[in-house]
Amino acid sequence: MSPQVRLRLLPSARCLFDEPVQVKVAGLRSRQVVTMRARSTDERGMIFSSSATYRADGNGDIDLNKDPSLSGTYVGVEPMGLLWSMKADSLHKRFQKNFSLNPHVVKFSVHEEEGGRTLAEETSERVLIGDGVSRVPVKEGNIRGVLFTPQGPGPFPGVLDLYTFGGGLSEKRASLLAIKGYVVLTVALYGHDDMPKEIQEINLDYFEEAIEFLRKHEKVGGKGVGIMSLSKSGDLALSAATYLSGVEATVWINGHSANTIFPLCYKKRQIHPALLFDTGRITPTESGASIGKHAMNNPHLEENKATLIPVEKAKGRFLFLTSEDDQNWDSMTSMDMLVERLKHHGKDNFESLSYPRAGHYLEPPYGPYCPSSFHGLWGQRIKWGGEPRSHAAAEVHMWEKIQEFFRANLSCNDEINNNVSASS
Fold this sequence. Notes:
By secondary structure, this protein is of the alpha/beta class.
């Protein structure tokens, strides 16, 4: 370590997961070239790291907000590049940070270009749950999940988070949204707690129960709740908005326009068969991960039309967000189908937005970009698509857009923001 070199994270080394920080270095020699690194470990113990080469200015200072990386895991002026460009030590691994009480701890360091001697280091604690936000596990009736409630008397809007379709539970998105002033219930669909490890069908009754649980909560106000989805849970969110009462605003991220993979049932009868996929249309690549973009069957073929969800019957509003380079499945075409269907029925209760060069997994910003990982439904490693820099920028914009959408369509009253005192 060099006592004259200082590495600072501003405004604080402790912040929320979705907040940017300013990384600054001082005390270097004039025009000195150094390597900056970031390193973190996820919940499985997988190590993620990044590095970038910088040249100090005449005063021996580096400011990532204005100085470009010359080489490394990213190049150019990217203030948060050390975070989103972190890669796992092994191929096809996705960064796992699902438990809200575990912060994302990142060690930043500055090293001599030659020899690699450490000149300075600082540790950032990027928390997923704000001060004053309560976290309560839910095991009521059929519901298995976690409820996040902001500090203050409320009322707050309620949001049901269907993070993604898979075994287990993810709390990250729900806990971060609760900080913004929402009561958020994130639920597991299978494989969590005492739930079945595998399923043969999906029951819409489960989501109806979760929506009613939220609406009856003492701190939840407003006419109805919001739903936030991703991937397979996108078509579940569409079905909930279409068939269930009390859904005012639905966020659909890289989902499908039809009911996929599993039959959908409600009140003990099937309302949609499953749109299936053909593994023969999953294309292998030299990376060891495959492309599943064209694996799903065409929902507009006569034999598949029963899988299409009649979204024109929904009473709430939709926000459709899609990545133009989604390699998991063709979510862009699905969004176009949804928009065309709503317009055909004279509906204007939607907004749609696409992100060039972004991949399938759009999440809260500043986590490591994932190019590929194992896909439980496909049963193999899948490329998610996207270019790291563009994907990272899309996540920043998407996260703000979701909050803007919910504020416009779920606010209980004009005083809601005054009732929130949660912070980092």
